[in-house]
Amino acid sequence: MFILYLTPEPYSPSMLEAALIDKYKSTKGCKNEKNGGDTCQWSGETSEKRLYMTYVASCASVVRAARGFVEDVGAPAASKSGGLLDLARRSENNAERDCARLMVNQFELGLPIPKTKLDTGVPDDDLSVPVLRLRDWVDFLVRGNHTHILVGLKKPNWKREEAILSAFWANFERQFPTHPVFESARQGNLDLGKTFPMVFHGDEGRGRKRLPFLVLNFHSVLGRGLQVHSKKKPGWIKMAPNYHGHTLTSRFLLAALPKAAYTNEHGHVWESLMDLAADEARHMFFTGVTDLISGRGTFHMAMLHICGDWPWLADSGGFKRSYRNVQKHKTRTKPPVGICHMCAAGQIGYDFEQLNTDQPAWIATMFTQELFCEGFDPSPFVRIPHVPGQTGALWYFDVFHTMHLGVCKYLLGSCLALMSEVEPGSSIDARFDSLSCRFIRWCKESKRRPHIAKLTKELIGWQVQTTFPSGTWHKGGLSSVLMDFVEHAYEANKGSWPRMLQSAGQAVVNCNAFLRTLYAGDAWLSVGQAEKAAQHGLDFLRCYAGLARIALREQRCLWVLQPKHHAMHHLVLYLWNCSRKGKTLNPLCMATQADEDFIGRPSRLSRRVTAQPQQICNRVLGRYLQSAYAQWVKAGYIIRPKHGTNKVR
C-alpha cells in the first residue's frame, strides 16, 4: 500500500481522490464507480478514526488545501497546474469573493449571464436582489449558437430548428387559432420559425434551517424527451417534452432568494418579481433578441403557461378562488366562493365532486367569472399575450402534483387499507407486515426500487379507522411503484378479492393506463392517443366516484374526495376536447418533475453560504452560474479552449 497524501485537514484527501478519479475514470483498469469523496465521509466515531467527504467544502478550505499542496510539491511543480498558485494566494478572510473572482472573472468558469438588480420601486431599499433576466439568457444562447437547446436538439441545425418550431406552431394553431402569436406573425412582427414556446415555473425549495427558498425559472416546452434509452429514432421534425438531460442545461434561472427576502417588510419584492417575469415574457414576445453575429434575424418567445404546484399557482396569480377555499365544515355561514380559478366548481350548484361525467355542471362556467379579488390589482401576468377570454388558462394544473402527489396518494391510501384487510393476521399491524413483505418481495422480483423500508398504517395516515386513509409520502416515485404493485396484485388476486377491492383494482388499472398513455407520447399526442388517455381518465374518475358512493352507503371513511380530483378532471376534459381538433399538446410538457430537480440545486447551494439574505442571493447566483457552466461543458454545449488560448467556443 502506498500513502499518496496524509493530512488531518478534512477536505484535502477527498479533493485529491476526486481529482484522480476524474482524470483516470476513463482509463482501462480504473474500478471507481463514483466521482470521489464518497469514501471520505465522516464516520461519526472518535477523532482518531474520522473520515471525511468534500461536498461541504468551503472556499476557505479550498484555499488552505491549495496552499498545503503548493508547500508539499513546491511552487515550480505547482505552476504546471493552471491556476493552482493563484488559488493558493487567495485570502482566507474573504475566500468566497476571491475564489469567485479567480474562477469566474479570470478563468471564465461560469456562464456569462450578467446579474441585474431587481427594480422594486422602493427608493433606498436596503435589500438589493440580483436577477438573471430572460433577455440576457436568450442573448447568450443566440451569441453562443445554443438555440438548438430550446427545441431539444443536441447540436445546432438552423434549418431543423426552424422546421421544428414551424411545425409546433402549426399544431398549436389548430387548437388555439386566436392566440396573439399568430396575428403577430401575420403582421410580420415575428417569425414563427424563430419563436420558442416557453413556460414559467416557480416553487419553494428547502433552504437553510429548512426555511423556504424561492426559485423561479423559464424553460422551453420542447426538449430531449422522456425516455433515456428509447430505441425509437426521432424524425427530422422532433418534438418531445423537456425532461432528459441535466436541468442546469435546460432550465434558465430568473431569481433565487430566501423567504426573508420576499415576505414581511420585504413583501414588495414578491410583487416586483412577478412584474419582472411578466415584463421579460412581454419583451421576448414583442421585441425579442436579434442575432448580430450570424445574421439569423430576431428571435422571440411566447410564454404559454405558468406551471407549478397549486399553492404556487394561487400565490402567483392572486386568485379569488383556489383549493384554499374548499368547504371544511358541514355547516357554512356564507356561500362558498369556489375552488377553481377557471370555473365555478365548489360553488352552490357546481359540485367539484361531480366526477362521473364528461359534462359536469361547472363546464358551462369556464372562464366566465372574475379571477381576482375586488379591490386588488390583477396579476401582472394578465399582460402576457394569451388566448382572448381564457386568462385563467395561463395557470396550468401540473400532472405531477395533481396525480403522483395528489390523486394517486388518495387512491393508494384506501387501496392499501383494503388490501391489508385480506392479509392474514390478528391485528392491523400484523396484516400490514404481511402486506409489506409481499410488496418488498414484488419489488425485488420486478427490480423496482421500493423507496421505503416497509408499509405501515402510518404511511397512509390510518392510525384509526375513523379517518380517511391517504398517502403521507412526498416522493412521486413511491406513488408510481405502489400503483404498479397494486395493479399486479389485482391481476393476480381479483377473483378472490371483495367487491369494493375489485373495483379499486380496476380504478388503479385505469389510472395507470391514463398516465402510461401520456408518458408514451411525444410533445404532441395524436388524436388516438389523446382520446385513449381521456377515456382512461374518465373511466378512472367514474370508478372512483362510484367507490366513494359505496363507502358513503356503508358508512366507511374511504375514497376521500379532494380538490385535486377536480384538477385531474380539467386535464382529462382538456384532452377529450382537444382531441376533436387534431393533435393535442401533451400535459407532461407543463409537468414539473424536472423543475423539482432544478429547484433543489439552488436550494442546496443556499444552505452552504452566509445567512444574510443579501449575500445569499448574490452567492447562490454566482455558484449557480459556475455549476451550470460545468454541466454545459460536460454536455458539449461549451468547448473549453486548449491550454494557451483565451477564447471559449
TrEMBL record:
This is Uncharacterized protein. It comes from Cladocopium goreaui.
